Amino acid sequence: MDLPVIMMSADDGKHVVMKGVTHDACGYLIKPVLFEALKNIWQHVVRKRKNEWKEFEQSGSVEEGINN
User: Nearest-CA neighbor of 7 among 18, 26, 15?
Assistant: First the structure.
């Protein structure tokens, strides 16, 4: 599935964070998670996804898929 993943962990080791990011996590939050930090990263993920969809639609891929 193509779902955004935000990792949360008490482990803030650089190798752990990098492993999550290299496996396509959109973000990484250190526990205990502050509500404001979760809100900010979620807004960033949603904004990024909206921009990706706009680019996809403008490329003509949606129309090509419908016509095939």
Answer: 26
C-alpha–C-alpha distance, residues 41 and 34, integer Å: 11
Q: What are the two backbone dihedrals, phi and then psi, of residue 60, each rounded to the nearest 5 degrees?
A: 90, 0
pTM: 0.63
5-61: pLDDT as tens digits: 899 999 999 999 999 889 989 889 999 999 999 999 989 888 988 888 888 888 875
Quote the tokens at residue 31: 């526990």
Residues 6+ apart with CB under 8 A from 44: 26, 27
Backbone torsions φ then ψ of 9, nearest 5 degrees: -160, 155
CA distance 22 to 28: 11
**Where in the chain are the domains?**
6-67
